[in-house]
Design brief:
Helices cover about 40% and strands about 15% of the residues. By secondary structure, it is of the alpha/beta class. The chain has a seven-stranded mixed β-sheet, sandwiched between helices.
Length: about 210
């Protein structure tokens, strides 16, 4: 399928005006695990024009039960394994890969030009670091994070909260991996909530 035909199909499903907004957008994803890998796939299917993918880790066998990788990806850098998948889904987007640990000193460099950054970290201190850095140093960028997706509780307990003017948090806000396990359905649900909020921001539908 050539590029022109691919875009026409997306326009026929999403609408021409919406697809134009997706195509012009640049979204960053910080962390390519259970949240970030699924968010990236959903945004690629939307036709987001540029995805910035950042993670220092490799695919491990313990990732397979909840992350968007398969057994053949074990041992590969997550950036490369995910890029390979995305190229099979949407080969016409631009993918910028950063195989490095995200720290305060490189956040602006990595996510420069992004309308939205998706926070998809595991640890609370990493989440706080990214939130502080993006919200304090990138005044034109939205941040969409995740908090509370462990356990097997009802999906009805999960929600999207506007924590600050440019900061949205998805999840139940309570469950913690330290107290329970991560299961694919709830992790993927949280990722879908993040992708939905990112989609709404790209469409200028900022309110929940």
């Amino acid at each position: 399928m050539d590029k022109e035909h691919y875009y026409k199909i997306q326009e026929s499903r999403h609408g021409k005006d919406r697809q134009a907004l997706f195509h012009r957008a640049c979204v960053g994803i910080a962390g390519l695990g259970g949240l970030g890998s699924h968010v990236a796939v959903m945004l690629a299917r939307l036709g987001v024009g540029t995805l910035v993918l950042a993670d220092f880790d490799i695919v491990d066998e313990t990732n397979i039960h909840r992350q968007h990788y398969d057994l053949a990806d074990i041992g590969k850098p997550k950036t490369q394994a995910l890029h390979d998948q995305l190229m099979r889904i949407n080969p016409y987007a631009e993918y910028r890969l950063f195989q490095e640990k995200i720290v305060p000193g490189n956040v602006q460099k990595i996510f420069e030009g992004c309308t939205v950054v998706c926070e998809a970290f595991d640890r609370a201190d990493q989440k706080a670091m990214l939130a502080e850095t993006v919200l304090c140093t990138m005044p034109n960028t939205f941040l969409v994070g995740g908090n509370g997706m462990a356990d097997t509780k009802s999906a009805n307990l999960m929600h999207v909260q506007r924590a600050m003017k440019r900061y949205y948090v998805c999840g139940d806000g309570v469950s913690d991996v330290a107290d329970s396990c991560l299961f694919a359905p709830r992790v993927t649900l949280c990722a879908a909530m993040q992708a939905t909020q990112i989609m709404r921001l790209l469409l200028n539908e900022e309110t929940i």
